[in-house]
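[job 4471] stage=fold_predict status=RUNNING
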Amino acid sequence: MDLGISGKTALVCGASKGLGRSSAEALLAAGVNVTVVARNADTLDAAVEEIRRTAAPGSGIITAVACDITTAEGRAKALAACPQPDILVTNAGGPPTGDFREWTRDHWIAALDANMLTPIELIKATVDGMISRRFGRIINITSSAVKAPIDYLGLSNGARSGLTGFVSGLSRKTVAHNVTINNLLPGAFDTDRLKATVLGAAKLTGKTIDEVREIRRLEIPAGRFGSPAEFGAFCAFLCSAYAGYMTGQNILLDGGAYPGAL
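[job 4471] inference complete, writing structure tokens
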């Protein structure tokens, strides 16, 4: 399916692996010129080399920028490489798991910087250009824990919920200009983040990692963990020319794990 975004430009954060990388790959396959950002230069360069090697004919151009997007200097470096993106995908690794009694103010500030304030700063830097060009797609990769909070993910629950509230207000102001802002809420996808949360749960419960992983799998009606590729494909569709009537939404991709009707 032609998504109608060939030739557009995208800035994708946290894109050296996992859901950020899969989103970048799907956009690239749609003909988008993608600038990918991650902290570790070696990991990012290796990912980009592999993506280029496997890219299909007609794919866009991929550019790598190694920087810490949670800092002002990192954001400036990323935006210098991609100053006027038509598509912005914000994404940052989740903060540590654990018991809230162990977290200091510094832990909370770091979580807010990575998972709330950095996306807001990137939106602030890019949304007016999108409005002037009358096309923009902003996707924030957050977490299913926004909808169904998990006790040992308190730092993530709080920071990402703050971003959700901000997006809810702003997205209703930009959509008239064909600029949409939506949040993708992944459940349990087979990524390094899943390994980290499983490890955190194992430490809290005394169960083995394999036991915790199997318990989590059985809690998913789909009977499996999600694949990064299917997440990326959905992200690319939300960035497409056909998704201009959806904004301000928190879209769960969780294999049916969330039990509510709303």
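[job 4471] summary: The chain has eight helices and seven strands.
[job 4471] exit 0
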